[in-house]
Amino acid sequence: MKTWINAAIGVLALGTLAHAGTVSAATTTLKTVQDRGELHCGVNTGLPGFSQPDQNGHWTGIDVDTCRAIAAAVLGDADKIKFTPLNAKERFTALQSGEIDVLSRNTTWTLTRDASLGLNFTGTNYYDGQGFLVKKSLGVDSAKQLGGATICVQSGTTTELNLADYFRKNGMQYKPLVFDTSDQTVQGFASNRCDVLTSDRSQLAALRSKLQDPSSAKILPEVISKEPLGPVVRQGDDQWFNVVKWCLFAQINAEEMGINSGNVDQIRKDSKDPGVMRLLGTSEDMGQKLGLPADFAYQIIKQVGNYAEMFNRNVGPGTPLDLDRGINALWTDGGILYAPPVR
Amino acid sequence: MPEHEQHPPASRPAPWRNPQVRAIAFQVIALAILAWAGYTIFQNTLHNMQERGIHTGFGFLGQPAGFGIIFSLIPYDETMSYGRTFLVGLLNTLLVSGIGIVLATIVGFIAGIARLSKNWLVSRIAAAYIEIFRNIPLLLQIFFWYFAVLRALPSPRQSMHLGDSVFLNNRGLYVPAPVSQPGMGLVWIALLIAIVAVIAVRFWARRRQLRTGQPFHTFWVGLAIVVGMPLVTFLATGRPISFDLPRLQGFNFSGGMGLIPEFVALLAALTIYTGTFIAETVRAGILSVRHGQTEAALSLGLPQGLVLRLVVIPQAMRVIIPPLTSQYLNLTKNSSLATAIGYPDLVAVFMGTTLNQTGKAVEIVAMTMAVYLAISLAISFVMNMYNRAVALKER
After folding, report:
1. Closest in A148, A156, A168 to B353, CB measured
2. Would the CATH topology of A29-127+228-333 be identical to that of A130-225?
C-alpha cells in the first residue's frame, strides 16, 4: 500500500514539474500586457534620477518614466505598472524568464548583450559615459595618475570591464573592489576602503552629493567609455520590440515638434501641421500599425511628457543630479537625439 | 520428481501478486519516470533557450574574461579566460572555508569545554559568547566585522606599523613575504626527516609504555625535533630566505603579502558564528559520557587533563562527529555570503561578474551548484571515514 502511495505521489510531482518546464510562446507580449492590464517593468533598485522610490513609495526617474510612457501607450494609463527592482546581476535573467515585459534599468547597449542573450535593445534614453570620483586628499588631477589605486565598482556592469580595459591600455595596476549594489560601492568609498569610485558620470554627481562632505571628493575629467543606456525587450517578439522602440521615439519627436504635456490638448485641437496630426493620431491611425490605440502618442505626452520634460524633471538643472543636456540634446540643438519620422 | 514438475506453476503466485516482484517493478517504474522527467526538463530548457535566441554551451570558458579580481591565490590578470575566473573563485572559497573550519573547530572546542568548566567566570564567559553569537544572523555579523574593522583602521598613509615590515591599515594587513633562496631545499628535507623521526619516536614510546608502563613525553620531544632540525639546517645553510618587504607606493602598499579586510571579516564572522554551534555540539558530546566514566578514571589516579583526553573526549567524539560534519558543511556553504562584502569567492566572481558578462545563467549556476555539492560531499566523505574510525567497535 505504501509503495502505491509513494509511486502515485512521485508521478504527480514529476508530472507537474515536467509540465512547468514547457513554455507556451503562442501569445505575444503586447496581448499579454493588455489582457493583464498591467505592465511589468524591471528597474534599478535605487539610482537617483534614473529609478528611485520617493518618500511616498512612488518610483521616479528617467528609466521609470520610460516605463510609464509604455504603459500610457499600451494601456492608456501611465500608472498601471508593477515595478520590479533588480540589481545588475538579476536584470537579464528576469527579462529572459518573462518575469518582466521590459527592462528599463540604465543598461548599456553592447554587442554581446544584443547578440547572445536573446534580448534586443530598443534605443537609447540616455547617452552616458564612465568616469571616476576620487578623494581630493589624494591630490590626483587625472585618471592617468590612478596607477595602484583600489577602486570600488559595481558587479556585473560594463563599468567593471571598461575599468579593466582602461588600466590595461594605460599600463597601470589597480585593485577592483566589487560590490553587488551601487549603495555598497558608495559605502566602500565613504569608509575609505577604496581610493576611487567608478561609475557612469551621470551617477557620480549624485553619489558625491550623498557623501557626508561632498567637497572632499571630485570627479576627474576623463570619460573612459560610451554608455548608451536604454530599454531592453526579449528577442523574437517584433511587435513588442516596435512598441517599446516607438514609445521613446514619440517622446523625442514630440520635443522636436514643440509638443509637451502642457500644450498637447491645445495643439491636438488646433494644429494643422500634418506631422503633428500624424503623431497625435488625429489624421492617420499610426497606432494601429503598432497594434496600439490611435492616440498612443497623445497619451504618452499628456501623462508623461516629451523627452525634455522627462529629462529636466529627473536629472536636469535644479535636480540633485543637475546635469545639462550635453549630447542628450536634440540633433537640432547640437546633441545626438534623433528619432525617425512618424509617417 | 516428475509429479513435482507438473505442478510448480500452480503453487507459485502470479508475478503481480508477488510482493517482492511488485516492489522492484515500482522502483523501476519510478526510476524510469524520474529519468524521463529529468530529460524532458533538460530538453525543454535547451529548446526554449534556443527559441529565444539565447546561446548555450560551455565554450565561453575559453574566452578572455577582461575584468580584474582583487585577490587571487593563482596568477590572474584580465587577459585570462572565464575558466580561470572559475578557478580563482573556487580557490578563494576553499581558502576561506578551509581556514574557517580549522579555526571554528578550535574556537568551538575551547568554548564548549569552557562552558562545562567548574570555574564560574570561565563558564559564564563561554555561555555569553555562545548565546550572543549563535543568535545573531550571520549576514549581520559579516557586516559588523567588515564595517567595524574598516572604520577603526587608518588609511594606508597613516598605517599602524611594526617596524618597517608589518603594516595594518584599512586596505589590509601587509607582512613581509618570504622568498626562498638556493639552499632552502635542504631545510624542507630536514623538516621531512624530522616528521618521520617523530612518528618513529611515537611508535617506540607507545611500545615502551605498553611493555614497561613508563610514559614518555612524546609531545615535547616531538616538538623539539620538528622545530629544531629544520632550524639547525636553516642556520647551517646560511639562512636561505630573504624577505620581500611591503612598501607604500602611490596609494597603496606593494610587495610583501597582503590580507584584504574582506577576507578577514568573512573569516572572523564564519569562525565565530560556526564556533558557537560547534561549542554546543562539543558540550552535548561531553555530557553524553556518563559521569561514572570520569569517576572511574579519577579513581584510577589519572589527572584531570588525562581524564578528559583519554577517557571523556574519545567517547564524546562518537556523539560529536555527525553534527560536527553538518557544521562544516554549513560553514562552507555560508562562505557564499562573501558576495555581500566584496570578497571574491566563487559566487561573487563566477556567479556574479562572469555570469553577467557572459549571460550564461543556466551553465554557470549549474557549475556553481555542482562545485558546492562536490565540496560538501567531499567533506562528508572524509568525516564519515573519521566517524567510522572513532565509532564504537563491537567486538
Report:
1. A156
2. yes
